Amino acid sequence: MRRRSNAVEAFSTDPWGAHRPRGWGGFWLEVARAMPGGWPWSRFALLARSVARRHLTGPVDTRVWGQRLRLFPDRSVSEARILFLPRSWDREERRLLGEWALAPGFTFVDVGANVGGYSFWVASRMAAGGRVVAVEPNPSLARQLRYNMRANRAGDRMCVVEAAVGAESGTGALTLGARNSGENRLLGDGESTGEATVPVRVATLADLVDEAGIDRIDCLKVDVEGREAEVIQPFLTDAPRAAWPGCLIVELKRPSDVGVPGGPADGPAVEADAANRRRTQVSAEALEEWLTERGYVRVLCTKLNGLFRLA
């Protein structure tokens, strides 16, 4: 029987494995995952995924990268991609991050963790003594992160922090993307939209580092829908250079891409909101220039992300 993903909490206590993919959904899921990369196999994989999605809406208990995950593929783009085609999800970012994670005692801070794709990938790769701090303000997603962390018995190497990260500590309002949970974002001062919101705690990155009890950040990933500078710049400005992250993964959406869900059909109100966000947020180009001036070198640029190392 199909179940909608907006009932995430209803399944939060079921033991992992209670929602394994079965029937046609399970069959086509395996077909999609089994296809090798490259033409024409990728085409067949997409067709198999399309069929599988008709039968699998969530929850789905599955193993990805050796990790036990409970996913809701009809709730977000990331969850669907991780479930159906995990090998192609942010492939280049994962390749490089996987190499970094092999360092002994690797510490990874994932700001805007969403369902934890990056966090659980690192957990599957890191050596003994590694640590993952997954930071996610959406209460529903934070509960899902904790569930998957417990399912993997990863409490000794992973923690979940339910908070938004900003330039100052306090409280804020988080939008809840109706079509894609990956588009949740913290509203700026005086900003309002027609979207549903939920009150959240806001902390600085320095606060979270102290609370997590970590003495260094080997890699910091920041994906907060256009407000990346508010996370990174205050920390690098105030912290001693020895405490700066050795590596950064930063979403670098261009200003023209920020906050435009679907184009003209969304109407003037959405366009006005997007224009306001473009005026108040630091552009991707300006943030990259700011990082370069402080010694970060870009080692990879993908469609959405920039990966940097501190020289």
Topology:
Blueprint: H1 23-34, H2 41-55, E1 60-64, E2 67-71, H3 77-84, H4 91-100, E3 107-111, H5 117-125, E4 131-135, H6 139-151, E5 158-161, E6 164-165, E7 170-175, E8 197-203, H7 205-212, E9 219-222, H8 228-238, E10 247-251, H9 267-280, H10 284-293, E11 296-301, E12 305-310
Parallel strand pairs: 3-4, 3-9, 4-5, 6-8, 9-10
Antiparallel strand pairs: 1-2, 7-8, 10-12, 11-12
Give your account of this protein's structure.
By secondary structure, the protein is of the alpha/beta class. It has two domains: 5-9 and 16-88, no CATH class; 91-310, 3-Layer(aba) Sandwich (Rossmann fold). It is built from ten helices and twelve strands. It has helices spanning 23-34, 41-55, 77-84, 91-100, 117-125, 139-151, 205-212, 228-238, 267-280, 284-293, and strands at residues 60-64, 67-71, 107-111, 131-135, 158-161, 164-165, 170-175, 197-203, 219-222, 247-251, 296-301, 305-310. The strands form three sheets. A seven-stranded mixed beta sheet has the order 5-4-3-9-10-12-11, sandwiched between helices. Helix 1 (23-34) packs antiparallel against helix 2. The N and C termini lie far apart (54 Å). The model is unreliable at 1-6, 255-265 and 275-280 (pLDDT under 50).
